[in-house]
Design brief:
Elements lengths: L2 H18 E10 L5 E4 L7 H4 L3 E9 L10 E5 L1 E3 L2 E8 L3 E7 L6 E3 L1 H6 L10 E6 L2 E15 L2 E10 L10 E3 L1 H4 L2 E6 L4 E6 L1
Length: 199
Amino acid sequence: MNVRPVLIAAALLAAVASARAQIVEMYRWTDAAGIVHFTNNINEIPEQSRSRATLIRRAEQQAAPVAPPKPDKASIQFQRRGDLMVVKGVLNGTVPVNFVVDTGASYTTISQATAAAINLDLGPNPPTLSFNTANGVIQAPLATVRSMEVGGMELKNVTVAVHDVFPDAAVAGLLGLNFLSNFRLDIDSQSGLLNLQKK
């Protein structure tokens, strides 16, 4: 019988078990003066008292779960609405939205209804941004969204302009360059995919 593969397999199993749980032990021992001590490290017990130490507890403590690393790239399916590309996103970790991808927009915009849905506080005198519309130039207030996620790609504290760009209530706004410029962007028109990779 070849013992070496068996030993290697046993070592691997032990390593996996060690990663999943840690053994916690507690010892009770009495010193020469009759004083009772407790320790979870048997090496802390003097050698002359170690033989009289009592193991009073042995339990498995589960190791804390390790969070999986966040992805650094994603392929997001987009929908065509005429010449527009629409992707799904999430604001503040809980509110699902639809964004029109606009690489010509400096800032991401969200509608007033979306701002209300995420309880976005504009404050009494928010900074504003000028927008060219069919009815002329307007001033839209700026605010900060705690988190913005598209296809698992998440940014924190993203500045947005609050403005009703689209009459369609199903579209929250524009996904602009202040989000997209944090990624290498590739649009696969044939497959209908927006590919993002963190820079």
